[in-house]
Amino acid sequence: MEEGRKQGDVLVASIFVNPTQFGPGEDFQAYPRDLDRDLRLAESVGVDVVFTPQGDEMYGKAYQTYIDLDALPRFLCGPSRPGHFRGVVTVVSKLFNIVRPHIAVFGEKDYQQLLIIRRMVQDLNFNIEIIGGPIVREKDGLAMSSRNAYLTPDQRPAALTLYRSLVQARKRVETGERDAARILKEARDLITAQPETDIDYLCICDPETLIDVERIDRTALMALAVKVGKTRLIDNTILPDSSSGFRSI
Asked: Is 79 inside a domain boundary?
């Protein structure tokens, strides 16, 4: 919202927990909701309009139109959350058609989602500029997420291994390591040393196609999803090497 305030004359925020992006057994009903707090936060940063539709307003009776992408949802979160990105792209396209923004801001913590929305906007000729908002972290480094509220104090050290593994990987690349498998093994060892951790995926890939890379000889994305207890957390970082002239994105 703060980034959006810088970008335009009128700032609109949509708040909608979208049922079509939650799969069977996922936490749609339990997903943290606090509309009063959200509205206070929106007002505090100068949001002009907050759009808060209900589920039956977005999806009427016998709803049957969805948007899907071919390649990008096959990677990272896609295999373990089938149908998730179909729901994301569908609801985002509906929000775009309702609000008609010139610019839209999406967080880089959900890097795959950001990439997919950019592709959808390009493929379907939406006249909208998509801006990525940098990851916002809590004081201890944990990427901010609604799901952090699920974590118990005892689970916090395990949750922090996501960020610590990314910091460790960046340092390894900066000191000359280029073998992706070696970096991933070190990250895996760091995470699994903590109790209650279950790695969904841990990969180093091309930041545009999400295809795995074996050698880090150009800018790469390191992304991971880990369950800490019952809480699924995601995080990512770009792995650059300024000394070798890697491009930044």
From this structure: yes
Using CA of residue 219, residue 147, residue 184, residue 213, what is the dihedral sign? negative
Residue ranges making up the domain that contains 62:
2-133
Rounded to whole angstroms, how far apart are CA atoms 247 and 202? 23
CA distance 108 to 205: 15
Helix (H) and strand (E) counts in the chain: 7, 7
Report helix, strand or coil for 228: strand
Q: How confident is the model over 192-247, as pLDDT tens digits?
A: 999 999 999 999 999 999 999 999 999 999 999 999 999 999 999 999 744 444 44
- Which residues lie closer than 8 Å to 6 by C-beta, 6 or more apart? none
- Domain boundary residue, one of 110, 133, 156: 133
Question: Which is nearest to 108 in space by CA: 221, 231, 232?
Answer: 221
Q: Residue 176: give its domain's CATH number.
A: 3.30.1300.10
Residues 157, 128 within the same domain: no
Q: What are the distances in angstroms from CA 76 to CA 58, 87, 204, 229?
A: 28, 16, 10, 20
CA–CA dist 176, 57 (Å, integer): 53
pLDDT (tens digit per residue) in 60-116: 999 999 999 999 999 999 999 999 999 999 999 999 999 999 999 999 999 999 999
Q: Is residue 18 part of a domain?
A: yes
8 and 104 both lie in a single domain: yes
| Residue 249 falls inside a structural domain | no
Q: Identify the sign of the CA torsion 84, 87, 90, 96.
A: negative
